[in-house]
Please model this.
Amino acid sequence: MNVRRRHISGIAVTAAAAVGLGTLSACSSDSSAAGNTDKFDVVASFYPMQYLAEQIGGDHVNVTTLTEPGQEPHDLELSAKQTAQMGEADAVLYLKTLQPAVDEAVGQADVKTKIDAATLTKLEDHGSVEHDHGHDHGGEEHAAEEHSEEAHSEEEEHALDPHVWLDPVKYAEIAEGVATAFEKADPDNAADYRKNADALTKKLADLDTAYKDGLANTDTKVFFTNHAAFGYLAERYGLTQEAINGLDPESEPSPARIKELQDEAKADGVTTVFYETLVSDKTAKTLAKDAGLKTDVLDPLEGITDKSKGDDYIAVMESNLKALEAALGAN
Model:
């Protein structure tokens, strides 16, 4: 992921005045795929957006996703077919800054309803491995010296963390905004969208309660993770995330960073290094072995695969809670 392209659009959700079911944007002549069904056609950028569209849209929507299961969403490149599909859709739902290729395609697509999830909640600066912004929300602020020279010239603004869906409260805020956009774009089914959104926000409120209760009393509040995806979750539940790699899951930590984490594991009673299903676990396992720690999966929910511990957002978040309770010594 290119953390240097983290400016958030100030443009609010653009909702179409009244898109009839299955109506296509005026420019489309040779229509196919996503925009040619008798339902409200939504293109979602990656799994957390797909889940919202399906849950809120129910039977009234046809959802296609740009990121295949098992594909690392940060590095997504779009095919010509996918770009064309976007142009045929009634709505596109994405999270600006997470996938630069999607941002670019959305900017060029003639879609009436463009829903940027980043405008539906407040994104925060949790620091980044490339640039120390002086914030201490989760420990990702340690600058990796090997990246700093290239980063300084390009990254003038703060890096905003896009991983908002891992905080059930913020995810619920996004769900509300998506429902409102769907209601405006497809008013014939507005009542159902509202009812479905209410059911989803209730599920997310229950999930939030489970996290609050489950993590209220723990032996330690610090957890190590391969990829700094859990800043919002850590902040919500009073935890400290120490990331090996920062916001970019593919970057390599410096030897100094590894030594720092080993020392901190001893000082803070850390038992476990978490890794994720879509990215190599090599670095996490090396650190764990050197520091005498266990490893486990903490899923950033960027996609559901056969390896996921659950078949949808709620189930995987419940698995993540169990993993955190075990690692932190919940009592």
